[in-house]
Amino acid sequence: MKKTKKMLSFVLSMLLIVTMFPTMAFAKEEAKTWKFGELSLKAGDVLGKDTEIKNDAENREIRILSEKTNPDEKKDQKDDKERIKTEKEAVIAAAASWNLRDLTEKAKKAPADYLLKKADSWNGSWIVTKIAETETKDAIEIQIRTYEHAAVTEIQGIPKEIPGTTALTGKAVPENADQKQITWEITDAGMTGAVLDGTNLKVTNAGTVKLLATIKDGKKTGVDFTQEFTVIVKAADYTKVTEALALIPEDMGRYTEESAAAVQKAKDAVKENLPSAEQETVNGYAAAIQTAVNALTLLGADYTEVDAVLAKVPGDLSIYTEESVEALNAVIASIDRTKTVEEQQAVAAYAEALENAIAALVRKPVPADYQGVEELLGKIPKDLSIYTEKSVKALNVAKEAIVWDLDDSRQEEVDQFAENLKAALDGLTLKPADYSTVDAALAKVSNDLSIYTEESIQPLQTAINSVESGKTILDQAEVDGWAAAIENALAGLQVRKADYSKVEEAIKKIPADLSLYTDASVKALEDAKNSVVTERPVTEQESVDGYAKKIEAAIAGLTYKDADYSKVDAAVKKIPNDLKKYTDESVKAVNDAKAAIVRGKNITEQKTVDGYAAALEKAIAGLKQKPMTAQNLPKITKGVNQSGMQGKELSFTADFEAKDLKKVLIDQKEIDAKNYVTAGKENTQVTLKAEYTKSLAEGKHTISIVSSKGQADTVFYLKKATKSPETGDRTQVMLWVILLGVSAAAVVGAVVYRKREK
To answer: Does the predicted TM-score (pTM) go above 0.85?
Structure first.
């Protein structure tokens, strides 16, 4: 087996050499390229410090040449190669992958230290001088190239004064400096509110900002270059704002609240010390103040005195002469409500003229107005027994004090009667409720309830806490209910057993609607729930707690079903078959709600599905019937003007849905529902029972079938009931027998009489 593998390896190696031969034979030496892992190298390549050279071929070496500032000189290269030949210790076998930094550290450990004497401060590049090929191995000859560090001496390009937010575009000097990346720091923002956003210096106010610029390794490796800057943020010009503020009147109380508030708002909006970049904003402050001042509106004159006098104008002017009323109306009509505060004197003249016109009213002799008294008398409760004797007595005194038939000259006395009566009505005080049963129940409550379960104590505590004092006789039923609740709670007190609180808590966690979950998971939950054995003693508390854990686990294992569309389907079924009777808008709302339903949702989207149902229900509830016309008013379609008999059923059919039926009227009076039966769905059939028609008089009657949509009417006629002989009626048979016997006797008598006559 081993021989086979060796032979196979040899054959493959020979094939590889043969395939590569043309390339090796014809490639030019200066263009020869070698691959080291993912890296392709040829002589003259410049490598970065962090370049990785992966050794994936056997017997390759990395040869490190001495440092030279001019690696292209052939003589220097030849000298270095000669030293390499004599200083074999400088040859490092690349048995792994090497980062050039790591390779430097390895080379430092070799005896040929002169090759890397500046490695500690090296800032140059690696130069591939040659990729050699020998009979036994390959080698990469790499040369270190170094240079002197170019230090930063200054940062230029930062302005001493800025109008506002500015980009920091500083530049390092000299231009050939090794490090040019500037980082910024605010050392003192002052009152400017300055912050840095990358290289942007953002400010909100004028003032002075102190900055520190830093270039890492700017002076030399490990030594940063720093420079301080002071930048002034130029302030905006507030001259126009000051001028606008000077225009605001000192006495703002002469102007309307709205216009004065607008001035104050414009004034308060001014932000001080903005930078010059915000000059437009500052000018806007001045413009806003100017606009608000120009819009100031003088207050209207004070018409309080005028309105007070107008309130004195009698409500009923019909009791006064036409001449005096006309004079008063003329004064009222002359009042101009557009006067300003500067015309207050004219407004005062209106009030004076009104006072004079009212005083000049001449009354007609009329009876006093007892309307208020009569209205209050009508408000006296029929049952005064529920009120205290004192308050009822006060009411009777006020009632008996009324003097009737006074004229309007004594209207004040009549009005006083009304006031006294109102005060007495308002003073009616309900008798207090009887708390004796409550007190008796409370007396039965033990001072020590610790022997009872918390569950049985809680209803008692709730019943006790529900008791409120100060209830009236109208609340007696509620007070008696409190007593009954306490008594029931006392009867329900139970001595403590095992604590089932965890079980109860677990049961409470059971979803109210288990129809949402799969039958298997629900069954597991029901089994866990049904496994609970109640009334266990407290010594078996561990078993009781086990019930709770079992139920909790079953709850956790509940698996949702698909969403329940039953409400949606129920709502769809509620859509009336005939939508023509409803307005187009309300019908559209129903159709839109129905069209919005998306089927196939799962239980996690139940709220959305229920929303479909709710929206459809709402739309159905919002259906509005078209306005009633002679054509669409309800009417009786069957049984119109029919005749019947007393004691027989009569049926009538109306053209509206049975659910809309409200009542039935016979001869314009509502009858009890027990006197008829209804049937039908889209049409309503009302059948008067035989017992009821028997009670109605003979002759013509009216029937009105009333619905929410209107009333359908017709007439019907009743005839007196007639009796007819029935099969098996022994009374009727006996009657015929007797009549037959009488007839026969009459015939016999006639024959005998004729014989005697002969």
So the answer is: no
